[in-house]
């Protein structure tokens, strides 16, 4: 059975992101993980789309981000499919 | 949605039945959620005189009113119960990622009553709640059990999990509740209550969205707060070796004034709570040698080994609790310590470092990391465990405990390997560990021989690592708060951070004032304490973080967040009255259960009776009894008994939400 490909995916603006992990908490499919380090001098763990994820492009993470650091962008794989 | 859901889940562990109760809006308006909602439910539903470890006690897991609304620094959850450690009102507070998960399951709080016949855990998502068998988890450490529960319960949504370790199962009165693999609701013995109910874990996998009334306005507040926080960074040249100098300067200051909370935020962003490791030793904040020593006993060549840079160098990453924009937490690599006993641990907090550092005259910081992980896995509160170890060492050094009684352990000051062995025994309740597993008050009562003089506690709860002899308001809070022996409710330093006087009509203005004035019992100091405490109750009602509180209300903006989330449009004075109501209800719980509040007065060692012979607090004895009387008076509580007066309860309108009217004679 082939997995459904999301029409859009979240992209993070790490200049705005505060690493508060609200997006990780609200994602209904637990697609996001907070382990992206190396972006600042503090070694903070920022969120990212996990390597294996069932994201369906629902955009709740983007809607609920308190600082607007997440943008939903068209998924290249969806277009290809 | 006004930020809260208006529903609670009540789980009867004896029958396996579940009940969803609707909570009136009036309750939230009067008490918010979090600790306020917990106090409301427990006051009304725990019968007077209930055994804290019996079926009548109720354990509540509550979220904050602002949790999940997009507000910052509001992602904490609270455990509430009748405390087996103090016999009175009990609560404990924790970060991590559990708080939003409670609300995502559709409830503001979950309450557990009764006792299960066999070990169970609660599984909750958007469908019917389930109690599942936890026999295979019983005996596992808290982290192992959490990972197993995640493995067994991962569906579409990765669950958030809370567990207890073996210490909670064995009813250690100083046991806590863990989440996020070692973050703890540590205080008040909440883990023992969970263990008494044979409840090993709570697994939450809901996906309900939480909203405030005006979500875009909440976002605007969060964006403004974030802009300030992004700029709050220590200069690159600032290193941990400078912190003792900061401590020295603060100790020398004759006058004290308002503190800029964003400077404190800079410190927490870089170091977390361990910013106080060496600073606190120098300025007299850190208790040394079981509250009897000074820097003469723990000199620079020792305390400099607690430089926080040492732990920071071990950090593989920092992490944030839910909705946090500071990020004080960290994961430390400890594979090279103690023969590789553990791979990693949460960076030990200042409290842990001090209790297992200066307070036992140990300077091996690395092994404090090992102890931290042992306690996180075993399920003991690091503050109480550390205080109890210091008590045992002093008893050993004074000949009250013999080597035969310590199972052959040489419990001398600074003998960290013996302490590691002792901690393992305490978790397992083996030999001397069984004697010490319930904290200092119980241990002293069993040992006798004058050992009570070395048991430093308030009402049975071991004191945290902040000496009130440099901040008397802390001492009053230790001694007169409904949950004694806690440093997170109120203190002079917090008030100076708060800027409350800019928002609240009756909060005394903090100017640059003589430090010595704080040591004189006065209505003004009592009023500052009342204001700070009432604000902290609001903090605990919305699920906010104590470090957010230290940013100051002008930055954290809880009153504004509350109005945008609820649409209530109340004034700061009105919210502060809510805080007063919450604090009074917690104390009414103690009155209902006829708790002897005079017994909450902190130990003489902490009062400074006799006073220290050296150090910053040399010769200081707090006038604690006068201060407590003034504190009780200012709250409208009986000066001596500490119980809220009938008139106070009536004025606050509390009887309208109680099942039985309050009456104190």
Structural summary, described in words:
By secondary structure, chain A is an alpha+beta fold. Chain A has helices spanning 22-26, 60-64, 76-80, and strands at residues 8-12, 32-36, 46-49, 70-74. Chain A contains three helices and four strands; from the N terminus they run βαββαβα. Chain A has a two-stranded antiparallel ribbon. Chain A has a two-stranded antiparallel ribbon with strand order 2-3. Chain B is built from 28 helices and 19 strands. In chain B, helix 7 packs antiparallel against helix 24 (558-566) and helix 8 runs parallel beside helix 10. The two termini of chain B are 41 Å apart. The A-B interface holds A 16, 18-22, 24-26, 28-30, 34-35, 37, 41-45, 54, 60, 64, 66-68 and B 68, 70-72, 75, 97, 100-101, 104, 156-158, 207, 209, 218-219, 222-223, 226, 229-230, 236, 269-270, 315-325, 327, 330.
Mean pLDDT of chain A: 92
**Beta-strand residue percentage of chain B:** 5-15%
Strand order of the largest sheet of chain B: 2-1-6-3-4-5
**Major β-sheet of chain B, in short?**
6 strands, mixed
Query: What fraction strand of chain A?
Result: 15-25%
Structural class of chain A: alpha+beta
Shape of chain A from CA axes?
A: globular
- Return Rg of chain B in Å: 23 Å
Unreliable spans of chain B are none
SSE order of chain A, one letter for each helix or strand: EHEEHEH
Largest Cβ-defined interface: A-B, 26 and 37 residues
Helix content of chain B: 25-40%
Helix content of chain A: 10-25%
**Multimer state:** heterodimer
């Amino acid at each position: 059975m082939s997995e459904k490909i999301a029409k859009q995916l979240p992209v993070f603006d790490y200049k705005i992101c505060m690493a508060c992990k609200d997006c990780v908490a609200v994602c209904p499919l637990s697609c996001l993980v907070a382990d992206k380090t190396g972006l600042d001098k503090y070694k903070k763990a920022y969120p990212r789309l996990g390597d294996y994820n069932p994201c369906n492009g629902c955009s709740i993470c983007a809607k609920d981000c308190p600082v607007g650091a997440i943008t939903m962008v068209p998924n290249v794989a969806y277009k290809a499919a | 949605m006004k930020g809260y859901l208006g529903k609670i889940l009540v789980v009867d562990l004896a029958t396996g039945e579940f009940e969803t109760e609707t909570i009136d809006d009036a309750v939230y308006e009067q008490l918010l959620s979090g600790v306020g909602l917990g106090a409301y439910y427990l006051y009304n539903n725990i019968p007077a005189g209930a055994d804290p470890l019996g079926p009548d006690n109720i354990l509540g897991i509550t979220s904050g009113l602002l949790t999940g609304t997009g507000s910052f620094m509001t992602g904490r959850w609270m455990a509430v119960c009748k405390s087996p450690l103090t016999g009175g009102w009990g609560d404990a507070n924790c970060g991590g990622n559990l708080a939003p998960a409670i609300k995502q399951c559709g409830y503001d709080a979950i309450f557990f009553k009764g006792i299960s016949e066999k070990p169970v855990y609660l599984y909750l998502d958007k469908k019917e709640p389930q109690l599942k068998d936890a026999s295979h988890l019983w005996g596992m450490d808290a982290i192992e059990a959490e990972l197993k529960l995640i493995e067994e319960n991962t569906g579409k949504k990765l669950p958030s999990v809370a567990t207890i370790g073996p210490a909670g199962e064995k009813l250690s009165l100083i046991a806590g509740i863990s989440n996020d693999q070692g973050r703890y609701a540590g205080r008040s013995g909440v883990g023992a209550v969970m263990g008494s109910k044979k409840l090993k874990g709570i697994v939450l996998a809901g996906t309900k969205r939480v909203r405030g009334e005006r979500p875009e306005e909440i976002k605007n507040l969060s964006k403004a707060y974030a802009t300030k926080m992004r700029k709050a960074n220590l200069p690159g040249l600032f290193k941990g070796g400078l912190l003792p100098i900061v401590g020295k300067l603060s100790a020398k200051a004759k006058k004290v004034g308002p503190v800029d909370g964003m400077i404190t935020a800079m410190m927490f962003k870089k170091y977390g709570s361990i910013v106080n490791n060496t600073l606190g030793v120098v300025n007299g904040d850190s208790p040394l040698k079981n509250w009897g020593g000074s820097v003469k006993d723990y000199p620079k060549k020792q305390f400099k080994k607690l430089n926080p840079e040492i732990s920071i160098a071990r950090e593989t990453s920092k992490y944030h609790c839910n909705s946090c924009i500071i990020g004080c937490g960290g994961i430390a690599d400890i594979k090279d310590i103690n023969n590789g006993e553990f791979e990693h641990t949460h960076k030990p907090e200042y409290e842990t470092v001090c209790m297992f550092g200066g307070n036992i005259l140990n300077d091996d910081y690395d092994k404090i990391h090992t102890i931290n992980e042992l306690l996180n896995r075993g399920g003991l509160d690091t503050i109480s465990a550390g205080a109890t170890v210091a008590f045992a060492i002093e008893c050993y050094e004074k000949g009250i405990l013999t080597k035969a009684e310590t199972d052959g352990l040489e419990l001398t000051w600074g003998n960290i390997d013996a302490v590691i062995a002792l901690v393992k025994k305490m978790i397992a309740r083996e030999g001397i560990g069984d004697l010490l597993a319930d904290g200092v008050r119980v241990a002293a009562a069993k040992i006798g021989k004058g050992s009570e003089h070395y048991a430093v506690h308030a009402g049975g709860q071991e004191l945290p690592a902040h000496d009130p002899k440099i901040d008397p308001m802390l001492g009053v809070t230790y001694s007169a708060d409904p949950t004694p022996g806690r440093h997170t409710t109120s203190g002079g330093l917090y008030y100076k951070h708060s800027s409350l006087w800019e928002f609240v009509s009756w909060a005394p203005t903090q100017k640059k004032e003589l430090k010595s004035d704080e040591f004189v019992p006065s209505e003004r100091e009592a009023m500052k304490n009342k204001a700070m405490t009432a604000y902290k109750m609001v903090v605990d009602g919305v699920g906010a973080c104590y470090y957010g509180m230290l940013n100051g209300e002008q930055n954290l903006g809880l009153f504004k967040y509350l109005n945008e989330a609820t649409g209530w449009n109340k004034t700061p004075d009105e919210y502060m009255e809510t805080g007063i109501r919450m604090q009074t209800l917690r104390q009414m719980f103690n009155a209902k259960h006829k708790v002897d509040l005079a017994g909450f007065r902190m130990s003489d060692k902490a009062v400074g009776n006799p006073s220290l012979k050296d150090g910053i607090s040399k010769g200081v004895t707090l006038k604690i009894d006068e201060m407590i009387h003034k504190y009780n008076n200012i709250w409208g509580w009986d000066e001596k008994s500490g119980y809220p007066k009938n008139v106070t309860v009536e004025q606050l309108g509390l009887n309208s939400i109680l099942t039985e009217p309050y009456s104190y004679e």
